Amino acid sequence: MEQVEWRCDPSRAQWQLEVQTLGWTQGGRLWLTRDGRYAEVHPIPSVAAAPDGSEDRLGLTLSIAADWRAARPGSSTAFLCEPAPDALLAIFDRQGALADCTSLGEGDAWRELEELPDC
Known about the structure:
Blueprint: E1 3-9, E2 14-22, E3 28-33, E4 39-44, E5 46-49, E6 55-64, E7 76-77, E8 86-92, E9 98-104
Parallel strand pairs: 6-7
Antiparallel strand pairs: 1-2, 2-6, 3-4, 3-8, 5-6, 8-9
């Protein structure tokens, strides 16, 4: 990953993730949790790729759901801006293999989750 921006805008009640990579990808996944028990997994699609395959831009906007039961993968989340969730970001290459991963946020409660990529 060349660049990652992960931010929350409380006035718009939404989280936003932007990722710039070298080379095309098959997208990514974002795991969010605070306690290692309740977790969300969000797909991260490519939103702009260079025609020559030299780079890819992935993007995800999550609205903050008023009720945690209304959270939906890829579109909304139960996590408020504060306190921020612990997050794991994984990017996959064009063949679907793990290309890169990084943690976002201040904690690592995501390590408690099952079925994570081997980062």
